[in-house]
Write a structure and sequence with these properties.
By secondary structure, this protein is α/β, with parallel strands linked by helices. It has 18 helices and 15 strands. About 45% of the residues lie in helices and about 15% in strands.
Length: about 475
């Protein structure tokens, strides 16, 4: 019997995808694929599902769990290309429960070879979904957990069903940030964790991702911002000194005042006034503007012209459109799915020259045409910048390489003077930021060890900041 679940003609299996499937199979069909963003994790997992289907003479019950609703639709397009007719289980159960039950019955009785459902992580964890899932013949069940790091959250990890024998997790960054318990739960459920890893450097070398230049820009705070920053840093120092275990995660989560102070300081850094000023100089220097992404902070800035505050994302769009003549629109959580699809289509065609986002382009949204990216704000979570970099480096027929501009805010000079606890705290903060920068730089064309004329190296532009905070070891 041939498999109903079969790859389409346009899928050309790459050697690294074959190795990923082989190592997952060798791991008793359980494990996590840690693959750089943009390297085809979706297709790789569906090739694994095809293998399972062939082993079981065409029979497979495939359950795909994804973090967001728009990814359900995106996955559905690829799953249909493999010949399946997936149930899309999200929103109200009234939309999916009846077709789920009908197809499950047909699968259990042999009336259909393949059962496929695509759901969100949150729906997957509900009692209603778990109840329906338990009625499916268990021998041939396979779970694909996209962006599997999310599944380590307390309300999700408790819903991971033991009865599913074949389990595959997908993520460029499967380790949960400051959550060893959640990471360990995922490793146990997926039989030891990562069974295959495909790094960014390998992906670039093999042509799965494009090459890139990485240019960091040091931004200084204004006097007013520096004063606020110092006040917040002092407050954070006082609050942290009362906590045992040096900002341990459990204590941090329970200390509301400390969390608020850290949040305010991060937002201040994300929306520093000098970032838009620097952007206003860099974009004209870029020359022909097209296929440009700008990542903003989620706070607000004060506009000198009106004296009123404006969201950073809106202020950035205004700067690009009114001051620089760039056809730019925002891409945020406030735009619905239809609006987002139209924005992406306009961007792909070149009708729209720039997309301005906060976090909505971090996971699962494909923008391969991107040639230039300006990262005005980043979280300290390494997952965010790993995913952003991979998203920017997706190959495209009209793209030879990408250019990434990264904006790094320098703490006030006064905090770099001395050797007390305030200096130590700021030094730790700068170290984390520079470690992120060096991770970005290590695979770039203009890495300090690379011989590329005319492109500023990441190392040279950061030496002063390293010296100020005694971080020349980085």
């Amino acid at each position: 019997m041939t498999s109903e679940f079969t790859r389409p003609d346009w899928v050309e299996e790459r050697p690294y995808q074959s190795r990923a499937v082989e190592q997952w199979v060798d791991g008793n069909a359980q494990g996590i694929l840690k693959m750089a963003t943009g390297t085809g994790k979706t297709i790789t997992s569906l090739l694994a599902a095809e293998h399972v289907s062939n082993v079981f003479d065409g029979n497979i019950a495939l359950i795909v769990a994804v973090p967001y609703q728009h990814l359900v639709e995106q996955w559905a397009e690829d799953v249909r290309e493999f010949g399946a007719d997936p149930i899309l289980a999200y929103k109200s159960r009234n939309y999916w429960q009846e077709p789920f039950q009908q197809q499950a019955l047909a699968f259990n009785t042999g009336a259909r070879e393949t059962f496929t459902v695509i759901t969100t992580h949150n729906t997957f964890a509900t009692e209603a979904f778990q109840s329906e899932l338990s009625r499916i013949s268990q021998a041939n069940q396979m779970l694909i957990a996209d962006e599997v790091h999310h599944m380590g959250a307390p309300h999700l990890k408790s819903a991971l069903p033991d009865q599913i024998p074949m389990r595959m997790g997908l993520s460029a960054t499967p380790e949960r940030w400051y959550d060893e318990e959640g990471t360990e739960a995922l490793n146990q459920y997926f039989s030891g964790g990562v069974v295959y890893e495909y790094s960014l450097a390998e992906a670039i070398e093999n042509g799965a991702l494009c090459e890139y230049y990485y240019i960091p820009h040091i931004v200084e705070l204004t006097d007013e911002e520096a004063l606020e920053y110092e006040e917040l840093s002092s407050k954070i120092g006082r609050l942290a000194s009362r906590i045992d275990d040096d900002l341990g995660d459990a204590d941090l989560q329970s200390n509301y005042k400390l969390k608020q102070a850290l949040f305010k300081r991060a937002r201040l850094l994300g929306t520093a006034e000098g970032k838009l000023e620097r952007l206003s100089r860099l974009v004209p220097e870029q020359g022909d503007v097209h296929h440009m992404l700008v990542y903003c902070g989620d706070g607000s800035v004060e506009r000198e012209s009106s004296g009123r505050t404006k969201r950073h994302v809106d202020a950035t769009v205004e700067l690009l459109r009114k001051d620089l003549g760039v056809r730019a629109k925002r891409f945020t959580a406030e735009e619905d799915q239809n609006e987002r699809e139209e924005l992406l289509a306009e961007f792909e065609r070149g009708d729209l020259e720039a997309l301005v986002a906060i976090r909505c382009l971090d996971e699962g949204v494909d923008v391969p045409a991107t040639e230039t990216a300006y990262i005005l704000a980043s979280s300290s979570n390494p997952r965010q910048f790993v995913q952003r970099r991979g998203r920017i480096l997706r190959p495209h027929k009209n793209k030879e390489f990408a250019v990434v501009h990264d904006f790094i805010v320098s703490p006030p000079q006064r905090l770099a003077d001395g050797d007390g606890p305030v200096f130590s705290a700021e030094r730790s903060l700068v170290r984390k930021e520079l470690e992120r920068v060096m991770m970005f730089a290590e695979s770039a064309r203009n890495h300090p060890d690379a011989d590329v004329d005319g492109i500023p190296t990441s190392e040279a532009s950061l030496q002063d900041l390293k010296r100020r905070f005694n971080l020349l070891d980085l």
